[in-house]
Specification:
Length: about 450
């Protein structure tokens, strides 16, 4: 067939193998369809030595069939003059530097699904960019990818762990030094192993030198707040509110403690995801994918009662007749602009300094929620469900409806933490309510 947008669209991908379809009009010009459905234009030819070569011209969408056909004719003209475009590209690939490889990987990761079949989240890509720029490029960016050995990857990990890439934080408004450490080193090496596997699939290297490298164990922090420490933090939070400290930040910290959610889940929480009646949050996207997270009556009412902030449009937009004011979509909006609140680490640091609490991070609050749930007698599977962890047989059951047992557990945990934050001594009696009816197609 003649390759056109319409004819290519009729070709069905094979889930197990690449499919090649060749153009009837231009010999050697064709299209490859990957099992994922990605379509790329190809050119197959023989060089001056009679060796068969196959050259990728570009993806459908980046190139139209007509553009690809013109490019193929141009490359065939080069072959007729004795050149070898595919061989030259392979030579260039062998000389590619680590910094260039990282850039290629990050660009592809923005649009193509990974090993789990999902495109990386924006927040994950931001972390990947940071690890590449701060650690991998600094230590190995100048090296040719084909020259890397397993020993180089092991040394990369050691150098990061011992602080060779330590640097001051570049983010505005943040202080301190990024020092590295064993956990940071392990995660950077894990990312680099993925990048090198990408290079192997692209034919840049034959073997992944990161295979077999033993990463440092990613030691999880076990710090959590005791009930007495929660009470102390609650007193400081109350005093800060009376002193008109950052109200949004303090409210976000309380929300983290009452729900056990991750920082990003609370700060980027839009009003439309909160279902106070069913006492849950309907996340469209989380670290584990879309899910419904039971949070309990106390937490749901606290979130529901957060004040809504108006976003003022600038004078230029007002002059053009656009809406003057609109409500912020975020439960915890930024003090300025249209985004959500972001300065939470500094708010928590100030509160913990006043409460004389050490080694407390925002993730400590999530551990505290789990610890309180354990003290109340809930099982590990129930706690996993409350935290939104991916556990076979647990989170799968809560993907469409908030389970009544989990909602009841969330009621008790959030109420118990709220009681401690308020400085009350008595235990909380929670009245179990029927789970609200929910549209299963939501």
């Amino acid at each position: 067939m003649k390759l056109t947008i319409r004819s290519i669209a009729t070709i069905t991908a094979d889930p197990k193998h690449d499919i090649y379809v060749w153009d009837d009009e231009l010999a050697g010009f064709g299209v490859r369809i990957k099992p994922s459905g990605v379509r790329s234009f190809m050119l197959q030819y023989r060089n001056i030595h009679g060796m068969s070569r196959r050259l990728t011209l570009g993806k459908l969408g980046v190139l139209t069939p007509d553009d690809a056909r013109k490019l193929a004719k141009k490359r065939l003209a080069e072959v007729a003059e004795g050149n070898d475009p595919a061989g030259e590209r392979n030579t260039a690939r062998k000389a590619i530097k680590v910094a260039e490889l990282c850039d290629l990987y990050l660009k592809e990761a923005e649009t193509l699904p990974g090993s789990r079949g999902r495109i990386k989240k924006k927040s994950t890509l931001t972390l990947d960019h940071s690890r590449v720029e701060r650690h991998i490029k600094k230590l190995l960016g100048h090296r040719a990818v084909v020259s890397l050995t397993q020993r180089d990857i092991e040394k990369l990990q050691t150098d990061i762990a011992t602080g060779k890439t330590a640097t001051k934080r570049p983010e505005k408004g943040r202080s301190g030094v990024v020092t590295g450490g064993r956990a940071t080193a392990a995660r950077a090496v894990g990312l680099f192993a993925t990048i090198l596997e990408f290079a192997r699939r692209q034919g840049i290297i034959k073997e992944n030198p990161a295979r077999g490298v033993k990463k440092f164990p990613d030691v999880k922090r076990r710090r959590f707040l005791s009930i007495e420490e929660i009470k102390g933090l609650g007193k400081v939070m109350y005093a800060a509110l009376k002193a008109k400290d950052n109200r949004t930040g303090i409210a976000a910290i309380r929300a983290l403690m009452l729900t056990g959610c991750r920082k990003s889940e609370i700060l980027s929480l839009p009003w439309e995801w909160l279902d106070a009646k069913a006492r849950c949050i309907r996340f469209e996207d989380t670290k584990s994918g879309a899910q419904i997270r039971p949070i309990g009556a106390t937490a749901a009412n606290f979130l529901k009662n957060q004040p809504k902030r108006k976003i003022k449009k600038d004078k230029l937009k007002q002059a053009k007749g656009q809406q003057k004011d609109a409500e912020s979509p975020w439960i915890f909006p930024a003090d300025r602009g249209e985004g959500h609140f972001v300065g939470l680490p500094m708010v928590l640091e100030r509160l913990c300094t006043r409460a004389e609490l050490k080694d407390v991070t925002l993730h400590t609050l999530r551990h505290t929620y789990a610890s309180v749930a354990a003290e109340l007698g809930f099982s590990e599977l129930t706690i996993a469900g409350l935290l939104g962890h991916t556990v076979p047989g647990v989170t799968a059951r809560y993907s469409h409806l908030p389970d009544s047992a989990l909602v009841s557990a969330a009621d008790r945990v959030s109420a118990h933490i709220s009681t401690a934050l308020n400085g009350e001594e008595k235990d909380v009696q929670v009245i179990e309510l029927k789970t609200a009816k929910v549209n299963r197609g939501a």
